[in-house]
Amino acid sequence: MRPLFQELPFNRAGSVNVYKEELPAFIVPWHYHPEIEIMYIMEGTGTRFVGDHVEPYEEGDLCIIGPNLPHEWRNDDAFFQKGSNLKASCFCVFFQQEIFGHTMLDMPEMENIRHLLLRSERGIKFSGTSRERIAKLVKEYVFEKGAGRIAKLITLLEAMATSEEFELLASVGYCNNTIDSGDSGRFEAIYGYIMKNFSRPIRLEEVSSVAGLTPNAFCRYFRERTKKHLYNT
Q: 147-161 vs 111-119: helix axis angle to the nearest 10?
């Protein structure tokens, strides 16, 4: 399943867009866009896919996703059941790196943010007290107007850039396009199969066959690509 290009419905009168979304479940599929995205989960649980990184997420999850990096937050199957009272909600901030221009990013005072934006090309997850501080800034952002939005964005990015409680998500190989096209197609086939059969237990033999690998080889492959175990065996 190749990621879909998503053209975001921006208010073209502004350089930074922020909104709160409340749904029974998130419906945006595996996708990418040129805008940098800050995603803060208010409610809901599920699985987060960022490049070749896969792991569960829960309320409070907070990430920054760099430009054109495929991603998806998919809610647990219970959110899609008829009659479910569960709810998924999030705050999102979108902007393009170009709003700063080369001159501004080259300023010594912007060094931390410049490095953050480079790291965001792999996706970054925040944790601990840093996440709490950054989440507070995200929630406050929706009230900013005019030039205050740009000032608040710089404050938000500086808080991310100086945090020591973070994890890079997608692998270096994925983001540097050093993985050959055959391997990329294999991972996309695995991803597509998992998402198509998300609502039921998937046997190791099934997904191994999709990948064209033996069960043992598949487990090694998946662990090397995602740094996670799809199966405990």
A: 70
